[in-house]
Design a protein that fits this description.
The two termini are about 20 Å apart. The chain has about 200 residues and is α/β, with parallel strands linked by helices. Helices cover about 35% and strands about 25% of the residues. It has a single domain, classed as 3-Layer(aba) Sandwich (Rossmann fold), CATH 3.40.50. The chain has eight helices and ten strands. The relative contact order is 0.22. The strands form two sheets. It has a six-stranded parallel beta sheet. Strands 8-5-6-9 form a four-stranded mixed beta sheet, sandwiched between helices.
């Protein structure tokens, strides 16, 4: 698929499985079939919300999510974990910033399968640009969405590396390779914008 050759090659070299889709609908159909009958956790993702995947899965899989009243621990205990990233470098690094730590922890350890669903808008040319995107694009949007009174949410223009008690950027995970603490790890690339 045009635009994904470099990142696909680098992700595969780092131990990740990779699938590519032109549309979010195609990616959602694929995941809906793939996760049939499984117990799936997630820690909150606008990308998943935009896909409508959680609602679809509830009819034929067990979904654990704090958005559905479960605890973070319930989602973390699921054999399969769904998430996105705040940024993906074409050089193959996946970057996530988290406040509670539930999402970043679940991408590193404890699951039989982890799926990273990534829209084209999260792709950056290299690690430095991906880290910049995670801090200065995704994080302010998430802080604003959550109604936080942090400088980035109020001003909406960049990360201020604030010391606010409402700060949501408390943990950073960079996956350079597939962590050995998880089983299969698949990056699902979508040639449409998804999430922040």
């Amino acid at each position: 698929m045009p635009g994904f050759e470099k990142v696909r090659k680098n992700l595969e070299a780092h131990g990740f499985d990779v699938t590519c889709f032109d549309t979010a609908a195609e990616a959602a159909d694929y995941l809906d079939r793939r996760l049939d009958g499984k117990t799936v956790g997630h820690g909150g993702s606008i990308t998943l919300k935009e896909l409508g995947l959680l609602e679809r899965l509830q009819s034929h899989a067990v979904v654990r999510s704090h958005w559905l009243g479960d605890s973070f621990a319930d989602a973390a205990a699921a054999p399969v974990y769904l998430t996105s990233v705040n940024a993906l470098a074409e050089t193959g690094e996946l970057i996530n910033i988290d406040g509670t730590g539930n999402r970043v922890a679940s991408t590193i350890f404890g699951h039989e399968e982890v799926y990273f669903i990534v829209g084209i808008n999260k792709l950056a040319p290299d690690y430095d640009a991906a880290l910049w995107r995670a801090r200065n694009v995704a994080s302010p949007k998430n802080a604003r969405r959550l109604g936080k009174k942090t400088p980035c949410a109020v001003r909406g223009d960049k990360c201020y590396d604030c010391k606010s008690p409402e700060r949501i950027c408390r943990a950073l995970a960079v996956l350079w390779e597939r962590p050995t603490g998880i089983g299969r790890a698949e990056v699902v690339l979508v040639n449409e914008p998804l999430g922040y």
